Amino acid sequence: FNPGSTGQMHDIENAHKAALVAVNTTISPCISGLVVFFIRAKVWQPKLLDVPGFCNGILAGLVAVTGACATIKPWESAIIGFVAAFVYQGASMLLPRFHIDDVVDAFAV
Predict the structure, then answer these.
(1) Contact yes or no for 91/108 (Cβ under 8 A)
(2) pLDDT at 35
(3) CA atoms within 13 Å, Cβ hemisphere of 54
(4) Phi, psi of 31 (to 5 degrees)
(5) pTM for the full predicted model
(6) Cα dist. 42→17, 27, 39, 57, 80 in Å?
(7) Contact, 32 vs 25, CB < 8 A?
(8) What is the C-alpha to C-alpha distance for residues 101 and 62, in angstroms, rounded to an integer?
């Protein structure tokens, strides 16, 4: 949906803008999802391959990059996705400490 938000592709400049938006909207969630998957598989106990965590990591990357996806470079999108993964993971770890019952971990996203 983000590339369509450019509203028009009548000239080459707007087409490039839509392509940049598509690239940034793809890179950030990929990085974020993989980082969360790695953290939950190798670092955070009980060290499981957590597919729901991977999906929520993807959503966290999408949420983090959507506002700026038309104005940033792809390498910046990767950094945003990396940071979003740690923000999501931290928020996800804090929920049980505050006795917040969130079965699908949506609040952390």
Answers:
(1) yes
(2) 97
(3) 9
(4) -60, -50
(5) 0.89
(6) 37, 22, 6, 15, 22
(7) no
(8) 24
